[in-house]
Design a protein that fits this description.
The complex is a heterodimer of chains A (about 100) and B (about 270). With about 100 residues, chain A is an alpha+beta fold. In chain A, about 35% of the residues lie in helices and about 30% in strands. Chain A starts with 6 loop residues before the first strand and ends in an 11-residue tail after the last strand. Chain B has five helices and 16 strands. Chain B has two domains: about 110 residues, no CATH class; about 140 residues, Phosphoenolpyruvate Carboxykinase, domain 3 (Alpha-Beta Complex). In chain B, helix 1 links the parallel strand 2 and strand 3. With about 270 residues, chain B is an alpha+beta fold. Classes of the chains: A alpha+beta (about 100), B alpha+beta (about 270). The interface between A and B is medium-sized, with 16 and 17 residues.
């Protein structure tokens, strides 16, 4: 999937809390705990299905952290893949309306 | 799986009310020997005068009828919690506040069922059991949490005489009037002794780390939450229950200092506590 068409949506099967710059996420399916650092939190907190990953990286990561666009996007894709693998984030190739978010 | 209770009409009741954390549960049995086991194990937690709104009816059965190596499982079915391990089967109805247990005449099965039932009762009100030892000093409760071998039982063993131990294994946390209290429990670990049946407001949680010297350090709040979540004992991995436990941990960490206690295992560590 092309990164410019990757829209992210948080799963409904999680509980999460951002404390300071970090975010704790707990899967309600298997109780696995994830801790995201400030970059991961920036991506996570923008994962509402409305903004493609490339734009999230540009606006939330590159503008805030000292990293190149290419490196940031590559790292973000790897990060997203990991969260998708654990079922706490889903991806779509089109914007996801708020009331029709995928699980 | 079915779990039915068929008690003989002529059965004599040998009921025992066990109060832990302010929840009195009437354990109902018709077996005099099992009553004796219960009275011995929970001797400091018996409420002979209590009319309990919570009840567990125990039916004794042959221990060979279960797989002794199975892991405990807890799940929600028809609005009842079901619990099953190699040595027991049980159900708990949170609305009726009644449950049933099928087990052999041993104290370990009912002990495990009680732990699970208490976690189920505590979660909706923001409480939980924490994998920690805890103690009261000068009217304040202190908890010592960590993974196995972190030093929970060591802290209990090193406690000076003015310290009242609540547990060396499973600390009981209950929210009352907006404050968090620790309660003594009969749930003992390696220490082998039940905790003192008292409660006190929680002053701090110490995450244990063995070190060449003793010191207390602040830790990042997100890491504190992560460590507390990892050490909360909960058996029912059902989405609503997980959310309740998660929210309970968040509220607890926001209200109670969670610190790291690096310690050398001798009695001097208690000079930092209280």
């Amino acid at each position: 999937m092309a990164s410019t068409e990757m829209y992210l949506t948080q799963s409904d099967d999680i509980a999460s809390r951002t404390i300071g710059d970090d975010t704790l996420i707990m899967s309600t399916l298997d109780s696995t705990i994830f801790m995201l650092n400030s970059v991961g939190s920036a991506i996570w907190n923008s994962a509402d299905g409305s903004m493609p990953l490339s734009r999230i990286v540009q606006e939330k990561v590159c503008s805030e952290f000292d990293v190149t666009d290419e490196q940031a996007l590559a790292d973000a894709q790897e990060f997203v893949d990991e969260l998708v693998k654990h079922g706490i984030l889903s991806i779509s190739d089109a914007p996801v309306p708020p009331k029709e978010k995928t699980q | 799986m079915t779990l039915t209770m068929q008690l003989p009409e002529t059965a004599v009741n040998h009921d025992v009310v066990i109060e832990i954390g302010g929840f009195p549960i009437e354990v109902q049995t018709t077996d005099a020997e099992f009553e004796r086991i219960l009275r011995g194990r929970y001797r400091d937690y018996l409420r002979p005068d209590a009319a309990s709104e919570f009840a567990l009816r125990v039916q004794l059965t042959n221990p060979d009828s279960f797989d002794p190596d199975a892991d405990a499982e807890v799940w929600l079915e028809d609005r009842e919690w079901r619990m099953e391990r190699g040595d027991f089967r049980a159900r708990w109805n949170p609305e009726k506040r009644r449950g049933q247990v099928l087990q052999s005449a041993n104290p370990y099965s009912i002990d495990s069922v009680l732990r699970i039932v208490h976690t189920l009762m505590l979660a909706p009100e923001g409480g939980f059991l924490l994998h920690a030892s805890s103690a009261v000093r000068n009217g304040k409760a202190f908890m010592f949490s960590g993974v196995s071998e972190a030093g929970k039982t060591t802290m209990a063993r090193l406690a000076p005489p003015d310290v009242a131990l609540l547990t060396d294994e499973a600390s009981y946390v209950r929210k009352r009037d907006g404050r968090y209290f620790a309660y003594g429990t009969p749930f003992a670990g390696e220490f082998g002794e039940p905790g003192k049946n008292i409660s006190a407001p929680i002053e701090a949680v110490y995450l244990l780390k063995k070190a060449p010297d003793n010191r207390i350090e602040e830790i990042d709040p997100a890491i504190a939450l992560q460590r507390i979540l990892r050490n909360i004992l909960f058996f029912a991995h059902q989405p609503e229950m997980v959310r309740q436990v998660f929210d309970a941990a968040c509220a607890f960490v926001a209200a109670v200092p969670v610190l790291q206690l690096s310690f050398f295992p001798d009695e001097r560590v208690w000079e930092l506590i209280g």
